[in-house]
Write a structure and sequence with these properties.
It is built from one helix and 40 strands. By secondary structure, the chain is mostly beta strands. The strands form eleven sheets. Strands 3-4-5-6 form a four-stranded antiparallel sheet, with no helix packed on it. A four-stranded antiparallel sheet has the order 7-8-9-10, with no helix packed on it. A four-stranded antiparallel sheet has the order 14-15-16-17, with no helix packed on it. A hairpin with an 8-residue loop joins strand 27 and strand 28.
C-alpha cells in the first residue's frame, strides 16, 4: 500500500509490515522478500527477512542491465547479453557468487528448482545445465542447438548447419535418408571446398561486445580437426574488425573481409590467403575506398575476381545506381560491365544485376557475361534480389538459386524450373537438393532428379 509492504504467510497471517525505499521488482521467495532498484538514488538489490522489514539483511550492487529471477533457493543474475551467470544463495549467509562462464553470449533466461538445480538460456534458443556449468565449465555443452546461424552446401552431398550452441551439424544427403554428425566448432559463417575435404568457418560475428572471439578456422571436414586458425577478436577495435570471408572453393583461396577503422569513413582492407594461412599476392583496383562492397569476389579457381565500384543510392535504398563491376584475370583488368556483381556462374562467367533510376529505383534484370565483359545471355525475368548482392548461388553454370525467392531459375530459358516454399529462408544448394529454413525447422527438397 503506497510504500508500505505487508507480508503474509500462505494461511493469510501477516508476518510483518514496513516502509521500504522502493517496490521495484518486489519478489517473495521462501523466507525472504527482495526488491531490485537498478538505477536512481542508492540503487541495488535489497534482501529482507520476511519477519523483519526494518532493514535489509543484505544490500548488493548489481549491474543495472541484469535480469534477476527467483528460482528455488537462489536468485539468478543474468547480465544483459554477456556469456555468464551469477547466483545469489538465500540462507544464513547471502552473497553474490562468482561469474560462471557459459559458452554462448546473450544469456536472457534463468530457471531453477527447490533442490538448487538450475538452467540458463539465451535469446538464440541455447540452454545450459547449471550443474554442468559449475562442474565442467570447460566442456559444458548446450542442451539444445538453437536457431541456426547459417547453412552451407557443396556441389555433391554434404551440407553444414552452424548453430549458436557452438556445435556445427554436418549433413550427408543420401537417397532416401540423411546422416548427421556434429563438430565441436562454431560456424557463424561457413563454406565447404568443392572436393568436400575442408570446412572454413568463422566464430560468432553477430554478438558484438558480448563475444570477443571472431576467429576464422580451417577444419578437416571428415574429422573436425582444426588445421589453421586466423585470430580475430572484437577487441581488435578501434583499429580493425573482421567482418566475414569468402572462399574460392576449387582453389582453396580465402578472402578476408577486414575493415579498417583508423580512417573516417572506415575502409576495406585487402587480405587473401591460402587455407594454410600463407598470404597471397593482392590484385584488383588500386583504391579500395571506391568500392561498393568489400573486395574481392573470387571465381571458383581463384584466377578471376570481380570488384563492385562506384554506385549511389536513391531514396535511402542500397547504393546500386551507376555501379559497375570490374573483372580481373590474374591481377589484370579484363573488362568492365554495368551493374552489381551477384555471383560467379563458373570460372569464366559472371552474373550481374542492374538497377535504373526511378521512383522508386527500378530493377532492370540480370545479365551473364564472360570474364572479359562480353554479354552471353540476358535474364530480365529473374526477380529482383532483396539483398542487392550475396543471395544468388550458381548451379552447374546454367541454373541459379535465389535465396530470396527460394526458387531455381534457368538462365538460358529465363524461367523458373523449381519453386520451393516461399517462406523458406537462408537456403543453400547441396548437389541436386536445396536445404532451407522455415522458422527453426530445416527442410530438404530436390529441385531435380538425382542422376
Amino acid at each position: 500500500t503506497g510504500s508500505v509492504l505487508s507480508v503474509y504467510d500462505s494461511a493469510g497471517e501477516r508476518q510483518s509490515f514496513g516502509l521500504l525505499p522502493t517496490m521495484e521488482q518486489l519478489t517473495g521467495q521462501g523466507d525472504f522478500v527482495w526488491t531490485f532498484q537498478p538505477e536512481g538514488f542508492d540503487p541495488g538489490l535489497r534482501i529482507y527477512a520476511v519477519t523483519d522489514l526494518s532493514a535489509p539483511r543484505q544490500l548488493l550492487r548489481i549491474d543495472a542491465s541484469s535480469h534477476l529471477v527467483a528460482a528455488g533457493p537462489v536468485i539468478g543474475v543474468v547480465p544483459n547479453g554477456f556469456s555468464n551467470v551469477q547466483l545469489i544463495q538465500l540462507g544464513a549467509t547471502i552473497a553474490l557468487g562468482p561469474k560462471l562462464p557459459v559458452p554462448s553470449s546473450r544469456m536472457s533466461a534463468f530457471a531453477g528448482d527447490a533442490a538448487g538445480h538450475w538452467l540458463v538460456g539465451g535469446v538464440s534458443g541455447v540452454v545450459f545445465d547449471g550443474d554442468a556449468v559449475v562442474g565442467t565449465p570447460a566442456t559444458v555443452a548446450s542442451l539444445t542447438l538453437g536457431a541456426p546461424w547459417t547453412l552451407a552446401g557443396s556441389p555433391h552431398a554434404t551440407a553444414v548447419v552452424g548453430t549458436p550452441s557452438r556445435r556445427t551439424a554436418v549433413l550427408t544427403l543420401g537417397d532416401p535418408g540423411t546422416t548427421i554428425r556434429f563438430l565441436d566448432t562454431p560456424a557463424f559463417q561457413a563454406a565447404i571446398t568443392s572436393d568436400e575435404s575442408t570446412l572454413v568457418a568463422s566464430d560468432d560475428l553477430g554478438s558484438d561486445i558480448f563475444h570477443d572471439d571472431r576467429s576464422l578456422r580451417v577444419l578437416t571436414l571428415a574429422t573436425g580437426t582444426v588445421t589453421h586458425t586466423f585470430r580475430h577478436a572484437e577487441s581488435d577495435l578501434p583499429n580493425t574488425l573482421f567482418q566475414g570471408f569468402s572462399v574460392a572453393r576449387e582453389a582453396g583461396i580465402i578472402f578476408h573481409d577486414i575493415e579498417s577503422f583508423t580512417t573516417t569513413p572506415p575502409t576495406a582492407q585487402y587480405a587473401i590467403t591460402d587455407l594454410a594461412g600463407n598470404p597471397l599476392p593482392i590484385y584488383g583496383p588500386p583504391a579500395p575506398d571506391r568500392q561498393l562492397a568489400p573486395p574481392p569476389h573470387l571465381s571458383p579457381d581463384g584466377r578471376r575476381a570481380a570488384f563492385i565500384v562506384g554506385g549511389h543510392s536513391a531514396g535511402g535504398g542500397p547504393p546500386v545506381l551507376d555501379a559497375a563491376t570490374e573483372l580481373y584475370l590474374d591481377g589484370n583488368l579484363a573488362g568492365i560491365v554495368e551493374g552489381v556483381f551477384q555471383t560467379w556462374l563458373d570460372d569464366d562467367r559472371v552474373l550481374v544485376a542492374v538497377w535504373k533510376s526511378g521512383a522508386p529505383t527500378v530493377f532492370a534484370g540480370m545479365t551473364a557475361y564472360d570474364g572479359t565483359g562480353t554479354v552471353l545471355v540476358a535474364a530480365p525475368k529473374i526477380p529482383e534480389p532483396v539483398a542487392f548482392m550475396g543471395s544468388v548461388q550458381p548451379i552447374d553454370g546454367s541454373l541459379v538459386y535465389l535465396q530470396d525467392q527460394n526458387a531455381v531459375y534457368d538462365l538460358a530459358r529465363d524461367a523458373v524450373v523449381w519453386q520451393g516454399n516461399p517462406d523458406g529462408k537462408q537456403g543453400a544448394v547441396v548437389g541436386n537438393s536445396i536445404i532451407y529454413l522455415r522458422g527453426r525447422d530445416l527442410y530438404r527438397a530436390a529441385f531435380r532428379p538425382a542422376p
